What does this fold into?
Amino acid sequence: MPSKFAAISYLAALAVAGMPAAFVSAATHPQDLAALWKFKEEALKMSNNDASWRKVFETWTGRGEGCPYPECPHDPCGDDWHGTWHGVQCRELQGVKQWTLPDNVYRRVTNLHIPEWGLPGRLPESVCLFEMLEELDFDENEFEGELPACVGCLPHLREIDIEDNKFTGTIPKEWGNLKGLIEFEIDGNELLAGCIPEGLPKDAEWCGDCWSTCPSYDPYCGSYDCNSCVEWTKDPEIGTSYENTRIKGDRCPNEPNPPVCPWEIFKEEFEEQQRQEQELMRHKSEEAQQRRKEAMEEQKRLQDVQQQPQEEEEELEIRSKAPSTGAFLDEVEKEAPVVEEEDISEDVSEDVSEEAPASAGPAAKCGEPVERLTVDNEACVFPFTVMEQNHCDCINHNEEDWCVIADGSWKKCAPLEK
It folds into this structure.
């Protein structure tokens, strides 16, 4: 019987392998899919790639031979109780018909049913990775060696049928922990010996009359206790059956050994891997969002760079349209009203005193300082001289106010605040 250390060492070798991306859209639970890949890998390895095992696994792809991967995602449960992969079934789980569940609810593997195939080698210990397994049917094969103790850790098992094989040794005491087991058939394993662990079902009883299948030669038909009959099997005998073995029927005196549960460790490792994969996906998503943000910012920066010369060109065009000092004076002179010579002679005496400061040119000063700004928020410089006249405020030209700034150029005056 494998030791606890051996079982843990075996689990260490069952590191959760990467799974195909198609699992995301499959109905079968990803944890069970990972366990099935482990079962297949172990079976082929320990049987030296036996042809019988290879034949079983031919359908283990996509949704079976009718829709292989990658045409269909790996989905052994499918849409019916019998599944799509040979020997893998997802039947009722604790009374719930899984094939009627919504598409967004995972199905769990409940049955491994591969009888009468002449399969050689040991019973793969990876059967212990199926957390929700209810029935294990491997009768009439060529299995040999000891029974894996870890089977005693599968909490939902109700049937084990491994009759007519070549198992040796004894029934592991850990199997006594299978409190829900109802049908246990180990007949025909001629080298199996020892006691029956306490906790396994009582010896098999005939249950045929509950199904109206009593043999005609049995005079006691109908007189048996049929309380052990169950709905999920038509087997006429229910309980522990061990004919054609070296087992005498004695019950082991001690309590069953505490089981080592590979599926628990497998589940923890699987969930940790799932968490890491989700964290990696989240990290990749954040990186992608950051790259998109940086790309958008770079695109905006390039647009701004391309737009800046255009704005500068528009500003130069506006400046080019603004009149130069000479042109502006010429236009003002043209617009100045024509004064009759006689008017000048009449007013000359009166204006002498007023014109004297104007003739002073730039040296003249404004009585009260006037602060005006251009539309470009530049300060106007007063006084400035136009046609030998000093001006201490903006002057009107073409219905717009203008002034001179520090560099001597003309600029439009900003409107006065009211």
User: Anything to note?
Assistant: Confidence is low (pLDDT under 50) at residues 1-24, 220-225, 338-363. Residues 214 and 220 are 9 Å apart (CA to CA). The two ends are 103 Å apart (CA to CA). The helical segments are 4-13, 30-46, 51-56, 262-321, 325-335, 341-358.
